[in-house]
Amino acid sequence: MIENGNGPEQEGAGDTTYEEAVSHGRLHGTLAHRLAVDILNGVYRPGDALPFQLDSSEALNISRTPYREALKILAAKGFVDSRPKRGTRVRERTNWNLLDPEVMGWMFETTPTEDFIHGLFELRLINEPAAAELAAERRTAEEVERMRHALEVMRVETLATETGRLADIDFHKTLLIATRNEVLISLNSSIAAAIAWSTRLKSTDPKDSRSSWQDHARVFEAIEAGDGRAARWSMETLVRLALEDTRRSQKRREAEGEAR
After folding, report:
1. Does position 126 have pLDDT exceeding 80, yes or no?
2. Same domain, 56 and 132
3. Residues 77 and 158 in one domain
4. Which residue has better confidence, 82 or 234?
């Protein structure tokens, strides 16, 4: 099965065969996904030239158009650079748009490095505690009720289910909206993807299933009470605990890989 990497919220959409991708006109996305994973796995390294269009097209028995479209996708995300007489080459990692939700999905589909995971949580620690403080000061009654509903779904469904994970994303999305800060709100898709993929990573094994519901409940209670300082502290605690959980899951996966 080939995954298209369109994002954590589209679970099941990645279970697409090569033939199904062709029939649904998604071949360029499937090819972009395949090449991106090869780049992330080190098959193609920075500075390496990707196969010529004709070679790859003939190998996959497809026209050159989807391949060119796939390269455009990767170029837009900073993965490759195409120049006349030089071909298409992989760019240095510093050019990759790591906050793109689709790129984040590709990263977690492979084996994200400890530095990448730490960087994601540093981003969250810089932004989310401050966002929680602003949300406590600026939230509306409607937003409080939306967060309350999301929290209740998380309690009932748990983060081991897709429904629970979607409620988790909605909780954090509503919190960002409640800041009334358009710059913070613009980070929603990136933060949502970071939360979704790291949560999915640590939900793959019962040993990593520490419930974070109470952590979210403390954030909610502070926001509902309009206590910005408590909201900031509670959110920082939530993110730090989530980092510990994710690191534990990552170490387990690495140990299992070494044992095979």
Report:
1. yes
2. no
3. no
4. 234
- Give the domain extent around 56: 8-95
What pLDDT is stored for residue 18 in this prediction?
36
Q: Give the mean model confidence (pLDDT) for residues 145-155.
A: 97
Question: For position 40, which CATH number holds?
Answer: 1.10.10.10
User: Is this prediction's pTM over 0.90?
Assistant: no
pLDDT, position 24: 40
Q: What pLDDT shows up at residue 258?
A: 61
Position 233 pLDDT exceeds 80:
yes
3-state SS, the chain, equals CECCCCCHHHCCCCCECHHHHHHCCCHHHHHHHHHHHHHHCCCCCCCCECCCHHHHHHHHCCCHHHHHHHHHHHHHCCCEEEECCCEEEECCHHHCCCCCHHHHHHHHHCCCCHHHHHHHHHHHHHHHHHHHHHHHHHCCHHHHHHHHHHHHHHHHHCCCCHHHHHHHHHHHHHHHHCCCCHHHHCCHHHHHHHHHHHHHHHCCCHHHCCCCHHHHHHHHHHHHHCCHHHHHHHHHHHHHHHHHHHHHHHHHHHHHHHHC
